[in-house]
Amino acid sequence: MEKRISILGSTGSIGTQALDVVRLHGLQIHALAANRNVDVLEKQTREFHPQRVCIYDAASYLELKQRLSDLPVEVLCGMDGLCEIAADTHADVLLNSVVGIVGLLPTLTAISAGLDIALANKETLVAGGSLVMSQAAAHHVKIYPVDSEHSAIFQCLQGNRREQLHKIILTASGGPFFGKTRAELRTVRAVDALRHPNWNMGNKVTIDSSTLMNKGLEFIEAKWLFDLTPEQIEVVIHRQSVVHSAVEYQDYSIIAQMGVPDMKIPIQYALLYPDRMPCPTKPLSLTDYGTLTFEKPDLETFTCLKTAISAITIGGTAPCVMNGANEVAVEAFLQGEIGFLEIGLLAQRAVHAIPQETIRSYEDVIRADEKARSYVREAIARGIL
User: Fold this and answer.
1) How much is the pTM?
2) CA triplet 182, 187, 193: central angle to 5 degrees?
3) What is the tens place of the pLDDT at every residue in 275-310?
4) N vs C: which end of the chain shows fewer Cβ within 10 Å?
5) How far is 189 from 305, CA to CA, in rounded Å?
6) b/e for 129-162, b at 16 or more Cβ within 10 A?
């Protein structure tokens, strides 16, 4: 196939699985970008022969440039490098799979350049959803969802009238601590939270899944991607991760998308849309699973999801504040500075402590994000948890 792809976050979980899809279908890689993993980025560059590569970590730039000095490849660095790749229309699609709010500016840059986006960076829409979607509409840019849940909704909408949608059903695995009480969660360690029962993801996303913040972020994403009200989104715990999400129409018919829990399926759909091709995963056998279960989420124990729903209902910069607070809190938990339950507590407090403002520009988003991060860092430093 002649489709050319640029990937931001190529050495992460989504990026490496995307390259499995690229190998299978003979897609062309135009550019690759990674945070700081020089070893893997070098191997990827030698295999896929991109014209440009970027290392976000400035301290790793000279090492990467030296390692690739025998290749005809342009080596970029930092946010400027990410944005140069995002603006490069020699690619047909930009896969944005970086983690955190760092993904927002490259997304906006790609939109301004008119480049279609396969979006796996949740924080782009959580922090700046109104800005991103209005800009995408103005520049006639298509945003293809990569998250399995949003890909499922996107697929269930194909061939149906969008105005006849009644609600969406957003499924959640429940993470490794499904059924636990708050008392049991007080002693949870990072190593426990990183043991996800179904999915192989990076550390930050896996911790978010264990707190159900990941589902809260996806709740907000869904609101923006599909132009929904919070009342039109129902979260359902589905432990098997076979039904990736569903759409209920006005006649109360429900159409669901199913498959094995493998991210290569939604990644490939986003990159190859509207084509469906063989995928480097295994087929789903319903008889192997036998039973599929569905339950309501426990919002009182897993407060992150409740906070996310509250934040998008408040609107403005509230989701951005929640996201920034959560990013700092998750990192602090991974470093052993705070307990598991304090992640949700800090996100909740930040949303209530920092007044929401209207988002009119990228700078508005960044100011709100910085306020949230400062609030959480100060709370941790002062021990007021």
Assistant:
1) 0.94
2) 90
3) 999 999 999 999 999 999 999 999 999 999 999 999
4) N
5) 20
6) bbbbbebbeeeebebbbbbbbbbbbbbbbeeeee
Cβ atoms of residues 130 and 224 within 8 Å: yes
- Sequence-distant (6+) residues with CB within 8 A of 173 are 196, 197, 198, 199, 209, 237, 238, 239, 241, 261
Distance, CA of 5 to CA of 27 (rounded, Å) = 7
104 φψ region: left (φ > 0), alpha (ψ -120 to 50), beta (else): alpha
**Residue with token string 């705070």:** 338
Task: Name the strand (E) or helix (H) holding 345.
Answer: helix 340-353
* pLDDT digit string, tens, across residues 177-193: 999 999 999 999 998 89
Q: In the chain, what is the straight-line distance between the N-terminal and C-terminal CA atoms, in Å? A: 54
- Could you list the beta-strand ranges (E) of the chain: 4-8, 28-34, 52-55, 74-77, 93-96, 116-119, 143-145, 165-172, 233-237, 243-249, 254-258
